[in-house]
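Tutorial sheet, problem 5. The two components below are modelled jointly, 796 residues in total.
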Amino acid sequence: MADDAQAPDAPAPTPRHLAGDDVGIVHARDFTHPGTFAFKSGQAIEGFTLRYETYGVLNATRDNAVLICHALSGDHHCAGWHSESDGKPGWWNNLIGPGKAVDTRRFFVVCANVLGGCQGSTGPSSADPATGRAYGTHFPFVTIRDMVNAQKLLLDHLGVSELHAVMGGSMGGMTAMLFAIEYPQFTRRQIIMASTANESAQAIAFNEVGRQAIMQDPAWNNGDYPRDGGPRVGLAIARMMAHITYLSDAGMDRKFGRRKRETAGGEAYTFDAQFEVESYLRHQGQSFINRFDANSYLYITRAIDQFDPARACGSLEQAFAPIRAESLVVGFTSDWLFPPEQNRAIALALLRAGKRASYAELSTDLGHDSFLLESPDLYTLISGFLERSETYVFDFAI
Amino acid sequence: MADDAQAPDAPAPTPRHLAGDDVGIVHARDFTHPGTFAFKSGQAIEGFTLRYETYGVLNATRDNAVLICHALSGDHHCAGWHSESDGKPGWWNNLIGPGKAVDTRRFFVVCANVLGGCQGSTGPSSADPATGRAYGTHFPFVTIRDMVNAQKLLLDHLGVSELHAVMGGSMGGMTAMLFAIEYPQFTRRQIIMASTANESAQAIAFNEVGRQAIMQDPAWNNGDYPRDGGPRVGLAIARMMAHITYLSDAGMDRKFGRRKRETAGGEAYTFDAQFEVESYLRHQGQSFINRFDANSYLYITRAIDQFDPARACGSLEQAFAPIRAESLVVGFTSDWLFPPEQNRAIALALLRAGKRASYAELSTDLGHDSFLLESPDLYTLISGFLERSETYVFDFAI
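Model answer (structure tokens):
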């Protein structure tokens, strides 16, 4: 997803950390699981840490938790502000807060950086206790199931008895889906947005080009690089390219069109950034390398590529058989990375498997990043689903 | 366009250089313009060479020439075979030959590698007479108009009095369009396929990521690199990414889906090429760096980005005002790089400008590369247009 949670052309957010309508100043915490953690790959590590945030209060019956699952480049900081001088809030701050669609007066909201990530959770950039150096590519291969299992341990630690809901967009939707499959007794509702039950060849192809940009950068050095170094060129290229896939042709035309940079004035003939879209992308690439680890990018994109619950079970319907959660699936018309058809297919498979499921398709030109959309329609849809006991609306187009 | 002129999943071509249905063994020639050549940018070079091929015979009235314009990564070798042991024919061999849609029994077909290219024509990898070393980024900025003007000098040299037609796909369509604008008395027909009157922000963005992959590769060295070296990593990444934009989601799913490589057998957890689409793309990247110059890639993509005849004239209709050619514009349903709407817009602007123009839209899942399609419908359309004296069919959908 984009660097910030705002719709691409929304005005810069006004700090509202003192206002009553968001969760205010928040602090991340670390959960450390002390025991051996076995990955789906058969590999294991001794202990891991997940960095997470919570908003709201766990109720007495410990069943009002909503687990937020982030996308590829997201993190645990999905609402509120880290300090009064913070430039921007958590990435889903528009959705989560007191009185918002995910109402923190009612729900205990939990969000953790995924296992394999690089924002405080254990991943390839963490120190391997056996060597004291970063794991690099010695880190076990991570799957979405491993991410789910690690987050379940966190929820157990927090005393959550069952999830009111699990929700996420893009990879977060895959995580939610697998939570509902792996922990059916624990998961009452799932919201899957801008996601897929398995990537198309095109989506795998884009991830592969990103990985090649990283791995062919000599500074990658087989994954063994210093924390402040590494394949920054390759990672920036990967990000620039991926960023295009998060937007849409129409959205980019509306936002940038063929406008040229003012500073490019007379420089009609140059390889410098001449069009606005060029300097925007360069900025996206440069800001990403300051916050993301290249090995985590390899591991997490691979986990996304490999996600395919139907494959192991013969069909998506069979993969969904254990699910007890009620489901809301949301597709966005302009999302060409995980297009509406792929989201609708999830809802249809849930229905064919005899589950309660709704599908909504929202018209937008923001592309894949539309799940971050500031949209009253989306808020109504989500709050309605979270607060109703049952939903049967199907193919509800807004 | 793709490395070969075949539809992506067509069977490997059987060498047919001795069969009567193609132009057989052909030889490229060089045209050297001796004088000063002034670029649109205001820069100039002393003399240039275009490498070209011709098929068929120029008639007595010297008005049966068809100029073929190639795309970004194409070249002058668009039909026939260079030797009996050649593995594949020219990139548009399916279209050009005796009795084919572009009938070499009737037409004198000319195709030249563009100015700024790297397949024998003068470009950044050519030696600068002033220094004896490759021009690199000291080569003047090239525009589509410069390419057109250079090809006009070649046609003059060949004794062509007027073009029966100019035609091309993608950048070749831009070249054809500008030929019809710049040399209206000289151009009787134009065929524009899978092209655009100006790129969208998304298309510029993809080109920019490719350029950044090249320019951020340390081996680029500001464009000063040895012929057998240079930014091979960056160029391969640029090509891999661009290649995705030449195909379509549906076409890639049909061709590759989520199939894994047989050799990837038990290697479920690897960053090696695991999915077939990954090894296909890696192959595309590697084969490209052996035949293409990175600086030419920069120059030609920039020329494509800057192409915008409407901008200089106020509107596309005004830009088209000088045109006397009859036009056929062809869009392809699965082309998301230069989608059907952008092709239809060209035809509409021609009609609004009072020109004779037809538009056809072909259903295919081959994406942007569809103009290389082996399709009897396409052949009928093109041969009909080339052989009729007038055409008025509009929005003729196949």
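Marking note: Chain A touches chain B through 55 residues (CB under 8 Å). Full credit if you identified this.
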